[in-house]
């Protein structure tokens, strides 16, 4: 009996091995296509992890990581005593929270509206107009914003000509916040709309046909079919965005910020740039980046855990 069991196990191993070899041979071109992305991830994502050691050193660029003095957690202690760090941390959280509250629902609403449009040509033109800003560099967007909304820009010229007077869009703090969030939504809403449109297309059309037979209005179909159908996508994207609460891009605040609104525009990414590139303190810059990554991971895990606890689908 023992020999039979061992023989059976050996046959299973052989079958698995043959199946794996067959899969590799059958999908060899697909695996070949994966080589370049994998090389990119290894070189630009995993290799730089070695540089995290600088956060625990008094790093000297001439001596390198191997020759620099180890200082333990002293760099972190120093950072946590700096008021400028807490200002950047607070600004990052506030701007990301405003982006989440104001910007997260926008692509959902647009995707639902586009899915309800029956005139195909108008729908395609609208989609193209919405997607285009996503492919613009923030440098270009920053130039457009300055041209339109600076003190001597086109918007203020028009407002002055009709007797309203100038509005300081980019130098008054509250106005700058509104502009920052609005421009961010305009730039990113098209890409998010693509994701939700793809999710809506995947909903079973028979559900809508059954709703039509029952005499449901468009609003009821959206509420009872469309929104539940894209709910898993909404939850996953919400979890990912919560995980990025401390990760704010460098381009947007750097391009749109100025000295008059630095109280709001100085975020973690610009803070790291200033102390790392500007002051040459690579240990501090690395420590702040490591802190940002760890807290972001905690946010991600916590959001995923809460989603699963309330019965929703998580990302793992």
From TrEMBL:
It comes from Paenibacillus ferrarius. This is Polysaccharide ABC transporter ATP-binding protein. InterPro entries: MetI-like, MetI-like_sf, UgpAE/MalFG_permease. One of its GO terms (biological process) is transmembrane transport. Belongs to the binding-protein-dependent transport system permease family. PANTHER family: BLL4140 PROTEIN. It is a multi-pass membrane protein. It comes from the Bacteria. It is found in: Cell membrane. The chain crosses the membrane at residues 29-47, 93-117, 129-149, 177-201, 222-243, 287-307. GO terms for cellular component: plasma membrane. Keywords: ATP-binding, Cell membrane, Membrane, Nucleotide-binding, Transmembrane, Transmembrane helix, Transport. One of its GO terms (molecular function) is ATP binding. SUPFAM superfamilies: MetI-like (SSF161098). Residues 89-303 form the ABC transmembrane type-1 domain. CDD domains: TM_PBP2.
């Amino acid at each position: 009996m023992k020999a039979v069991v061992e023989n059976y196990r050996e046959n299973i191993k052989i079958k698995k091995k043959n199946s794996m070899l067959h899969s590799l041979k059958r999908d060899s071109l697909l695996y070949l296509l994966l080589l370049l992305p994998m090389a990119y991830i290894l070189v630009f994502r995993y290799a730089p992890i070695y540089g995290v050691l600088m956060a625990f050193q008094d790093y000297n660029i001439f001596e390198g990581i191997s020759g620099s003095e180890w200082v333990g957690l002293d760099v972190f202690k120093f950072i946590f005593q700096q008021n400028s760090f807490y200002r950047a941390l607070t600004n990052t959280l506030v701007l990301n929270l405003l982006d989440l509250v104001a910007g997260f629902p926008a692509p959902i609403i647009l995707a639902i509206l586009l899915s309800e449009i029956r005139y195909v040509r108008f729908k395609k033109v609208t989609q193209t107009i919405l997607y285009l800003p996503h492919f613009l560099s923030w440098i270009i967007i920053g130039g457009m914003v300055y041209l339109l909304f600076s003190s001597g820009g086109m918007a203020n010229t028009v407002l002055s000509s009709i007797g309203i007077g100038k509005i300081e869009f980019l130098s008054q703090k509250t106005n700058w916040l509104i502009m920052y969030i609005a421009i961010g939504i305009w730039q990113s809403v098209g890409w998010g709309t693509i994701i939700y449109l793809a999710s809506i297309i995947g909903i079973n059309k028979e559900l809508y046909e059954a709703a039509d037979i029952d005499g449901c209005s468009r609003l009821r179909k959206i509420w009872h079919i469309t929104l539940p159908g894209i709910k898993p996508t909404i939850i996953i994207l919400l979890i990912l965005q919560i995980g990025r609460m401390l990760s704010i891009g460098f381009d947007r605040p750097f391009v749109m910020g100025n000295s008059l609104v630095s109280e709001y525009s100085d975020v973690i990414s610009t803070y790291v740039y200033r102390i790392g590139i500007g002051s040459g303190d690579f240990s501090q810059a690395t420590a702040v980046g490591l802190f940002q990554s760890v807290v972001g991971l905690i946010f991600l895990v916590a959001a995923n855990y809460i989603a699963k606890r309330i019965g929703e689908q998580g990302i793992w």
